[in-house]
C-alpha cells in the first residue's frame, strides 16, 4: 500500500513537471510571437510618422531647385558679382574737372572788406583745370574691372559647384544611413521584446539569468551604435537643412534606386573626363582668370608710372601785368623719384605666383579625375561581385531563424550571432551602395560636368 502511494505521488510530480516545462515553452513561444507582432506594429507606426508635418520628402531635383532659389550663400555671392560689375561703370568714368574762384577779402589801401569784383579796388581770379589720363590708364582700369567681374562670376559658379556637391553627397548619405537605421530599429525592437519576455520568465524560473544578461548586453550595444548613427544622420540633416534653408524639418530623400543600379563608369574614358574638367572646372577658370588679372594689372601699374598732364585755364581781373589777364597752360609731374617701380615689380611677381598656382590646379585636377574614376571602377567591381539575390536570401533566412528559435531548434547564441551577421551585412551593403553613388558624385564634382544627374 505504501509503495502504491509512493508510485502515485511520483506520477503526480512527473505530471506537474511536464506541465511546468510545457508552460515555459508556451510562454517563450508566446513571447516571441508577441515580439513579431510588435515589430510589425512598430513598423506601421513608423510609416505613419513619416507622413507627419515635421518631415519633408524630396527628390534630388527638388532639392537642387530649392537650393538654387533659397540658399543665402548663393544670394550673397550674386550681390558680390553685381557689386564688382558696378566697378566697370566707375572705371569708365572720366576724372572730374577742377574749378576755382577767388576774390579780394580786404583792400588795405581803400580799407574796404569784400570790395565789389570788377571795381577799381576789387579783384577776382577764376581757374579751371582738367586731368588728362594717358598711357592707357583708363583702358587698363576698364579691363581690370571687367576681369574682376569675370572672376566674381567664376567664383559664384564654383560656389554652386561646391555646395551642390555637398548637397548631393548629403542627400545620398542620409538615404543610406536611414536604410541602416531601419536595421538597428528592427533589431533593437526585437531584442527589447525578448528581454521583456525573459524578465518575466526569469521571475518564474523558466529561463536562466545568463540568457537575460546576454540579451540585454547585446541590446545595450545596439542602442549605443544606433545612437551614434542617429547623431551622424542628424548632423547630415542639419547641413542639408542649411543648404536648403529649411527649418525644423526632417528631410527624407526619395531615391530612384533602379537608376542608380544602371550607373557604369566604363562609359566615361579618362581622356574625355580630363578634357571635360579642363573646359568646365570653375576653380581652374578662377586660376586662369587670376593669371590674366595679374597680367592686366602689370600693364596698369606701368601706365600709372607715366604722369598725367593737366590742362589749366585761368582768368585774373587785375592782379597781373595787364587787366583781365586770361591764360591757358599745361602741368605735369616729373617722374624723377617715383615712377611706380615698386608696384610694377610686385605685379611681375604676382604673375609668376598666379601661373604657378594655375599649374598646381591643373595637376590637382588631373589627379582628382584619375582617382575618382579609379574609385568608381573599384566600386563597380565590388558591386558586381555581390550576388543580387544575396540580400533577399538573407532577409528570407532571417525569418527562418526566428521561426527556428521559436521552436528551440537553435540556441540563443546562434540566434544572436545571426542577428549580428544580419546587421553587419545590411550595413556593409548600404555602405557599398553609397560609395558607388558617391564615386559618381566625385566624377561630377572633379570634372565640373553632370555625367550622373
Give a description of the structure.
With 453 residues, this protein is an alpha+beta fold. The chain has a single domain, classed as Outer membrane efflux proteins (OEP) (Up-down Bundle). It has eleven helices and eight strands. The protein has helices at residues 2-49, 60-70, 72-92, 137-203, 209-244, 257-261, 270-280, 282-304, 341-384, 390-406, 412-447; strands at 55-59, 98-103, 106-107, 112-113, 124-131, 250-254, 310-316, 325-331. The protein has a four-stranded antiparallel sheet, with no helix packed on it. Strands 1-6 form a two-stranded parallel sheet. A two-stranded antiparallel ribbon has the order 3-4. Strand 7 (310-316) and strand 8 (325-331) form a beta hairpin. 18% of the residues are buried.
Can you describe this structure in just a few lines?
With 453 residues, the protein is an alpha+beta fold. It has helices at residues 2-49, 60-70, 72-92, 137-203, 209-244, 257-261, 270-280, 282-304, 341-384, 390-406, 412-447; strands spanning 55-59, 98-103, 106-107, 112-113, 124-131, 250-254, 310-316, 325-331. The longest helix has 67 residues, at 137-203.
Q: Enumerate the spans where pLDDT stays under 50 for 5 or more consecutive residues.
A: 1-53
Decide which structural class fits the backbone.
alpha+beta
- Would you identify the CATH architecture? Up-down Bundle
Helix run count: 11
The whole-angstrom Rg is 41 Å
How would you sum up the major sheet?
4 strands, antiparallel
Biggest sheet strand order reads 2-5-7-8
What percentage of residues falls in helices of 4 or more residues?
over 70%
What do we call the CATH homologous superfamily? Outer membrane efflux proteins (OEP)
Quickly count the domains: 1
CATH topology: Outer membrane efflux proteins (OEP)
How many strands? 8
Strand proportion, as a percent range, falls in 5-15%
Q: Quick one: CATH class?
A: Mainly Alpha
Order of helices and strands: HEHHEEEEHHEHHHEEHHH
The average pLDDT score comes to 84
Alpha-carbon distance between the two ends? 92 Å
Gross geometry: elongated
Amino acid at each position: 500500500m505504501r509503495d502504491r502511494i509512493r508510485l502515485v505521488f511520483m506520477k503526480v510530480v512527473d505530471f506537474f513537471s511536464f506541465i511546468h516545462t510545457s508552460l515555459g515553452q508556451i510562454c517563450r513561444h508566446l513571447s516571441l510571437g508577441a515580439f513579431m507582432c510588435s515589430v510589425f506594429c512598430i513598423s506601421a507606426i513608423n510609416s505613419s510618422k513619416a507622413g507627419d508635418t515635421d518631415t519633408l520628402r524630396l527628390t534630388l531635383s527638388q532639392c537642387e531647385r530649392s537650393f538654387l532659389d533659397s540658399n543665402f550663400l548663393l544670394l550673397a555671392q550674386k550681390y558680390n558679382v553685381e557689386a564688382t560689375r558696378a566697378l566697370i561703370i566707375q572705371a569708365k568714368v572720366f576724372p572730374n574737372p577742377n574749378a576755382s574762384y577767388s576774390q579780394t577779402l580786404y583792400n588795405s589801401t581803400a580799407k574796404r572788406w569784400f570790395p565789389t569784383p570788377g571795381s577799381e579796388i576789387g579783384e577776382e581770379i577764376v581757374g579751371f583745370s582738367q586731368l588728362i589720363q594717358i598711357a592707357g590708364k583708363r583702358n587698363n582700369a576698364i579691363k581690370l574691372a571687367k576681369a574682376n567681374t569675370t572672376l566674381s562670376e567664376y567664383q559664384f559658379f564654383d560656389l554652386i559647384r561646391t555646395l551642390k556637391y555637398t548637397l548631393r553627397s548629403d542627400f545620398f548619405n542620409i538615404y543610406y544611413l536611414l536604410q541602416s537605421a531601419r536595421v538597428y530599429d528592427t533589431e533593437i525592437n526585437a531584442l527589447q521584446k525578448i528581454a521583456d519576455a525573459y524578465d518575466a520568465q526569469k521571475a518564474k524560473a523558466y529561463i536562466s539569468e545568463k540568457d537575460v544578461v546576454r540579451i540585454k548586453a547585446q541590446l545595450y550595444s545596439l542602442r549605443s551604435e544606433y545612437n551614434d548613427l542617429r547623431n551622424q544622420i542628424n548632423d547630415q540633416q542639419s547641413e542639408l537643412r542649411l543648404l536648403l534653408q529649411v527649418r525644423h524639418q526632417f528631410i527624407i530623400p526619395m531615391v530612384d534606386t533602379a537608376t542608380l543600379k544602371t550607373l557604369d563608369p566604363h562609359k566615361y574614358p579618362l581622356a574625355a573626363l580630363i578634357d571635360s574638367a579642363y573646359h568646365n572646372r570653375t576653380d581652374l577658370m578662377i586660376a586662369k582668370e587670376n593669371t590674366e588679372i595679374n597680367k592686366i594689372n602689370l600693364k596698369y601699374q606701368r601706365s600709372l608710372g607715366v604722369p598725367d598732364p593737366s590742362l589749366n585755364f585761368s582768368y585774373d581781373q587785375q592782379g597781373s601785368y595787364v587787366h583781365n589777364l586770361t591764360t591757358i597752360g599745361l602741368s605735369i609731374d616729373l617722374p624723377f623719384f617715383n615712377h611706380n617701380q615698386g608696384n610694377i615689380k610686385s605685379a611681375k611677381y604676382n604673375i609668376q605666383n598666379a601661373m604657378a598656382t594655375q599649374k598646381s590646379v591643373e595637376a590637382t585636377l588631373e589627379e582628382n579625375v584619375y582617382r575618382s574614376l579609379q574609385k568608381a571602377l573599384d566600386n563597380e567591381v565590388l558591386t558586381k561581385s555581390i550576388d543580387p539575390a544575396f540580400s533577399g536570401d538573407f532577409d528570407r533566412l532571417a525569418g527562418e531563424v526566428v521561426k527556428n528559435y521559436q521552436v528551440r531548434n537553435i540556441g540563443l547564441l546562434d540566434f544572436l550571432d545571426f542577428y549580428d551577421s544580419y546587421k553587419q551585412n545590411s550595413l556593409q551593403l548600404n555602405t557599398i551602395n553609397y560609395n558607388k553613388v558617391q564615386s559618381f558624385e566625385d566624377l561630377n564634382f572633379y570634372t565640373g560636368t553632370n555625367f550622373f544627374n
